[in-house]
Amino acid sequence: MPKILYISHSFVTKVNRKIASGLKDLGYEVTLVTPLAIETGKFLKFAEKIDNSNDIIFLKTFFKNPRLQIYIGLSKVLKKINADYIIYDNDPYCMQILLLTLSKSKQQKLYSISCENMEFGCFDLGFNNFVKCFLKRTITPFLVKNLAGIFTVNRKGKEIFINKGFKTVTQIPIGFDVNNFKINNKTRVKTRHNLGIDGICLGYFGRICHEKGLDILLLALSELKSFDWVILIDEFSEYKDLYISHVKDLILEYKLESRIIFINPAHDDIQDYINAADITVLPSITTNFWTEQYGRVISESLACGKHVIVSDSGHLPDLVADNGEVFVEGNAENLREKLIKLFSQDDILYPNIAASVFAHETLSIKRQSEIFNATLNKV
Question: 287: how many CB neighbours lie within 10 A of its CB?
Fold first, then answer.
């Protein structure tokens, strides 16, 4: 039975470890590795542990920056597990990937998973970026030679790494669990009753930060008070950002207090709130340093049969395909037009079955695992 050692900071959350089950179903022996904790300037989360599990290993790490982060003791784990395939969930231009290329055996195949979808020239964004660009160009030939391949979660990333000379570049979805994210009318009725929802319900799920564009959505909604709607907003209490105070000020300014329902769902019950909603909106905006890399809440919402509206930032139009509305990022008036269109649909309170089928066929953990398997088994 072939062995996979899969290393990811996302595995600190139990629900994100379900990819292991998908790979096991395809005949792999899978060991997961994750940090004991993730810490940045705005975020601290300790790993959710499972008693008596030999399938996941928790390691201490050096450095908070993901590109510099090093797992303490990973080389020992590498020798102990003796995996055929090593999958590292981070951009290839990071310290741990370089160390893995030096510590793995010649027989072991190393893969990187990247969310990158912006390419900067050496003379863009100042001196610091010049240094980064120079270093990337210097080590690219080494990585092209020593990495078996790169998995990228968006089409733009695939183009970037192919242009750099990487020979095996495969696009994969960030899979969701089909057992959790599906149309569930029983859960919908119960959750809406508990929250006191009768009319149209919108949902904004995930981090509240400038890049996600919640202020654009609130501005659009401020002119739509003649419609019967409420909106669920995920407080995302684990992640602190000064932008949250700005959002709360806007809610008062636009007199939307009676329309807002703040929620704080756990990772394993977010699907209940998604099912309670009718429309999920992700109004992300592009900055000088970032554009939407994926939009996982949208794939999960599609799976639950939600009508979705997304901006045209980054990967979102590709993710939605023909299964939702796309508006010009940062344009509240255009977003308002899309909202009115959906508010006026006779079927808005009913699930979007075609969207759910699309998501389950193309964006699930099952599909993600199948793509992993097909790539790993390429001769």
Answer: 11
Q: In whole angstroms, give the CA distance from residue 118 to residue 105.
A: 32
Closest CA relative to residue 88, chosen from 44, 150, 38:
150
Question: With contact defined as beta carbons under 8 Å apart, do 24 and 107 qualify?
Answer: no
Q: Average pLDDT, stretch 293-318? A: 98
Reading the block at residue 51, the tokens are 């008693």
The class of domain 3-175+364-376 in CATH terms is: alpha beta
CATH architecture of 185-361: 3-Layer(aba) Sandwich (3.40)
CA–CA gap between residue 166 and residue 137 (Å, rounded): 13
pTM of the predicted structure, to 2 decimals: 0.94
- The DSSP letter of residue 239 is B
* DSSP line for 152-163: ESSHHHHHHHHH
- Tell me the average pLDDT of the chain: 94
- Cα–Cα nearest to 297, from 215, 369, 195, 214: 214
Question: Apex CA 29: angle with CA 31 and CA 151, to 5°?
Answer: 70
Would you state the pLDDT for residue 174?
98
Any long-range contacts for 95-99 (C-beta under 8 Å, 24+ apart)?
Answer: 95/63, 95/67, 95/68, 95/69, 95/70, 96/7, 96/69, 96/70, 96/71, 97/143, 97/147, 98/139, 99/70, 99/74, 99/75
Do 204 and 311 form a contact (C-beta atoms < 8 A)? no
From residue 118, give the alpha-carbon distance in Å to each of 65, 131, 173, 213, 310: 19, 17, 18, 19, 19
Q: What mean pLDDT is predicted for residues 222-228?
A: 97
Give the tokens for residue 234. 């995920």
Domain boundaries, the chain: 3-175+364-376, 185-361
d(Cα 350, Cα 325) in Å, to the nearest integer?
16
Under 8 Å between Cβ of 26 and 51: no
